[in-house]
Amino acid sequence: MTTAAEALDDDFKRTMLGCLGSLRAFAVSLSGRHDRADDLVQDTIMKAWAKKTSFEPGTNMKAWLFTILRNEFYSQIRKSGREIQDSDGYYTEQLASHPGQYGALDFSDFKIALEKLPDDQREAIILIGATGFSYEEAAEICGCAIGTIKSRVNRARTRLTELLNIEGDGDYGPDSGALAVTGRPFIN
């Protein structure tokens, strides 16, 4: 003996299966491809079955299914606009990034070295290098000549290079181990 719920499920299935041909034709007209249309119909049926309790018996199931299919089609279109085909892995390779801890450690070392500079040099290099003031503006802020600011910045850069043991461009960015993994130099 079947219960009322089972009878409703059977009726729902029969009505839904009766709409498959129309759904497929609509899906082909939207997507233009038979294989995509089949996937779209399958997704529609799966969503309809999952939400069968929200269907009101006695209403137009075909219209309900067409609405689900149409919404699914446009959702897939929006989603595909954000996706990139990368079967050869080209774009994935470009996503490799260097470990963040090195940057944090380098910045920590820089802060320690900056604190070791004399106050006038630290002030000058922060005004020029960090805040972006021109030499003229920095000289006005510090109440000294432009040449004095230039001299302080130069001495600060030289001292920071010594304190951080920087010998060349190879001392910036990732070490050789990180380069071996990512396969390319650090680009800022």
Characterize the structure shown.
The chain is mainly α. The protein has 2 domains: 4-79, RNA polymerase sigma factor, region 2, helix turn helix motif (Rna Polymerase Sigma Factor, Chain: A, Orthogonal Bundle); 107-182, Orthogonal Bundle (Arc Repressor Mutant, subunit A). The chain is built from 10 helices and no strands. It has helices at residues 4-18, 20-31, 34-50, 61-82, 90-94, 100-115, 119-130, 135-142, 146-163, 176-182. Helix 2 (20-31) runs parallel beside helix 4 (61-82), helix 3 (34-50) packs across helix 4 (61-82) and helix 8 (135-142) packs across helix 9 (146-163). The longest helix has 22 residues, at 61-82. The termini are far apart. The model has no long low-confidence stretch (mean pLDDT 83). GO terms for molecular function: DNA binding; sigma factor activity. Keywords: DNA-binding, Sigma factor, Transcription, Transcription regulation.
> What are the secondary-structure elements, in order, as H or E?
HHHHHHHHHH
**Low-pLDDT segments, ≥5 res:** none
Number of domains: 2
What is the alpha-carbon Rg in Å? Answer: 33 Å
What percent of residues adopt helix (DSSP H or I)?
over 70%
Note the main sheet: none
Number of contiguous helices: 10
Family: Belongs to the sigma-70 factor family. ECF subfamily.
GO molecular function, one term: sigma factor activity
Domain RNA polymerase sigma factor 70 region 4 type: 113-160
InterPro entries: RNA_pol_sigma-70-like, RNA_pol_sigma-70_dom, RNA_pol_sigma70_ECF_CS, RNA_pol_sigma70_r2, RNA_pol_sigma70_r4_t2, RNA_pol_sigma_r2, RNA_pol_sigma_r3/r4-like, WH-like_DNA-bd_sf
